[in-house]
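Hey,
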Amino acid sequence: MDLQTRKLNAIGYLISLQDDKVFTKIETTILEIQARDNRKLKAITQKQIIDRAEISNQDYVAGKFKTQGQLEKESENW
């Protein structure tokens, strides 16, 4: 079945749909996909990368980090 036929079948299903809860779920999914697709990604500059790296190095030297083991233990409680 080609995409065009599948779309027409979906439209037919939506037209005949009577369950508001099901329609709300479909509508919410569509809106979430549209919002995700509309997000614009901004390119990061070389200066921003360097600034982030410097901050990360400072944090490491200051002991502001977690080990792999600490993260694994923490994630057990999620």
